[in-house]
Amino acid sequence: MTPPQAARILAELQEHSPRFVRVWELQEVARYGDCKTILHPELGHIDVDAQLLYTENRAQTLVALCPCPAPPAPSPARPPVQAPPRTCSPRSSTRSTTAS
Q1: Among the residues of 17-94, which ranges form H helices?
Q2: Among 95, 43, 31, which residue's Cα sits nearest to residue 67?
Q3: What is the pLDDT of residues 29-53, one digit of tens each?
Q4: C-alpha closest to that of 29 among 62, 4, 69
Q5: I want to staple 62 with a disulfide (CB 3.0 to 4.6 A). Which of 7, 37, 53, 68 is the partner?
Q6: Cα separation, 93 vs 34, whole angstroms
Q7: Global confidence as pTM
Q8: Angle at 90 between CA 85 and CA 95, to 5 degrees
Q9: Longest dimension (CA), the chain
Q10: What's the CA angle centered on 62, arms 30 and 29, to 5 degrees?
Q11: From CA 97, how far away is CA 32, in angstroms rounded?
């Protein structure tokens, strides 16, 4: 559907249905999302954003899997922030390592 076709349908609905006008003005959409990882046999792990759209009576569900956006690239004027190095002390052992 092209934008002009959608605009014609919208205008017609608004002209003939006061209820449609009220609902359209609310701009309420039920959207539920979840991050998922798909294991593709050739590409490996793919992170996707699963968007679930339901009909009003929940009789039907549309599941749209969209690739997760890549993290933004660091700006040349602002280098990436690095976490301070972790300082882990070796665990002390309660067992003796000398042979008896």
Answers
A1: 18-26
A2: 43
A3: 655 557 788 888 998 888 888 888 8
A4: 62
A5: 53
A6: 43
A7: 0.34
A8: 170
A9: 95
A10: 15
A11: 56
